[in-house]
Amino acid sequence: MKKAGLIVIDLQNDYLPDGKLPLTGIEAAAKNAADVIAAARTRGVPVFHVRHESPDSNAPLFAAGSVGAQIQTCVAPVEGEPVIVKRHINAFRETDLKQQLDQHGIEEVVVIGAMSHMCVDACVRAAVDMGYPATVLHDACATLDLEFNGVTTPAGQVQAAMMAAFEFGYCAVISTQAYLAAQ
């Protein structure tokens, strides 16, 4: 069995219902993420927290030093868990995430977090392209309604399309319950 690491993407306050960009289902996703993080800690699986931050304190989202940029309390890192601060959609771009994974001997990753169609997507694809087999826990991820060219796609459909794309050619996609039962 390969050594796994858990990557928690952008579960930050700005995505909560009272945040600047509320996501559909974020509270349920964060609760599932908290359960997965707790199980990882119990089993000694390394947890890597990723937090997006804009260097501009007036940024519309994840402004440096703001409450919105902080990781949600229910999934907050504990002492010794790395927190990778990113400024791009891809958690590997201009960060030390890959070095952290390699330093911990990680051979495969489990990815949870937000937003499914952006930062989770970019992280999963980059990880797989770098040779890390990946698993996404679909109900520990959240997204939002998207609009393009006058057409609105509901969050549930965005989520389903994203998970189907992952499962089609990039990684395993399972529920939190199935993942925890297999551990």
Automatic annotation (TrEMBL):
Q: Which residues form the Isochorismatase-like domain?
A: 6-147
Gene3D superfamilies reported in the protein's UniProt record:
Isochorismatase-like (3.40.50.850)
Give the species this sequence originates from. Halopseudomonas oceani
Keyword terms: Hydrolase
Hydrolase among keywords: yes
Q: What Pfam families does UniProt report for this protein, alphabetically?
A: Isochorismatase
Give the molecular function GO annotations.
Answer: hydrolase activity
Identify this protein by name: Cysteine hydrolase
Stretches that traverse the bilayer: none
Specify whether Cytoplasm is a keyword of the entry: no
UniProt xrefs under InterPro entries: Isochorismatase-like_dom, Isochorismatase-like_hydrls, Isochorismatase-like_sf
